[in-house]
Amino acid sequence: MAWSIxxxxxxxxxxxxxxYTEGFTRLVPSVLTLAAMAGCIILLGLAxxxxxxxxxxxxxxxxxxxxxxxxxxxxxxxPATAFRLASIGLIVAGIVRLKLVT
Length: 102
Prior knowledge:
The protein has five helices and no strands. It is an all-alpha fold. It is flat, with a radius of gyration of 15 Å. The model has no long low-confidence stretch (mean pLDDT 95).
């Protein structure tokens, strides 16, 4: 169960929402982003009740980084170069390996 909670926490690491807040000058995106971030931290805290801190934090930030980089490519037309995609793939591989050894 803790792994599922951690996965959802990683998905809620909605850094991409910061782009839409325009420096927290737009109300709705700001409220949604702050709510997602609060949920993210709460769920991470719950997952840490049973998971090792180093592993959980690395996986949590990895999920957030992969999601943010992917959405940057999809939503904002950031370059999807082979090197960038390979780097994202390495982060995913690291997440999987950390999960397998814990």
